[in-house]
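Usage

Read records sequentially. Each one opens with the input sequence:
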Amino acid sequence: MEGSGGGAASSSPPVAKYLNDFSKLFQYYLDKSTPHSVYRWIGTLVIAIIYVLRTFYVQGFYIVSYGLGIYLLNLLIGFLSPLVDPELDPSNAPILPTKGSDEFKPFIRRLPEFKFWYSFTKALCIAFVMTFFSVFDVPVFWPILLCYWFVLFVLTMRRQIAHMIKYKYIPFNLGKQKYGSKKSSAGSSGSRAD
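and closes with the structure output:
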């Protein structure tokens, strides 16, 4: 009895060590990819194209794609929403500035960009792996799912945009006023008329 327990215990640490080493290596590369958002999203786009080609090629797994679409829509709502919703938390209202005289407060997302990207990519990879198992290929009439998803998307985005307009926040840097840059201050100090 003692010998069989020791054999199982001795085989477990190498597997645990391998998983621990893999986890550290994965986290290392994940940390190194953090500042390279454009390249991360290009990689995710490639994965999405591969997924679409796979589902088009096998002509199935529409329910998996529908579930993926609902999950990605949920992630998008978290990405576009502020960390503290002024509608749900009136004790801190107004968190977002509503008048020009209010103090500037930066937009803090409920779901940061990196976590949004990571969850988005992970969901695509899981859905891609699911397309290799026939148990997930439930026969459905896909045009109804597609129409229902578009209706859900439009209604959800309309509600989110109305929320943005009501509380006057823009979750992107596009169209926001830019203040002095380092280039202009360095150029003005370097050109003296001595």
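Summary fields computed downstream for this record:
- Residues 62 and 142 are 6 Å apart (CA to CA).
- The longest helix spans residues 2-33.
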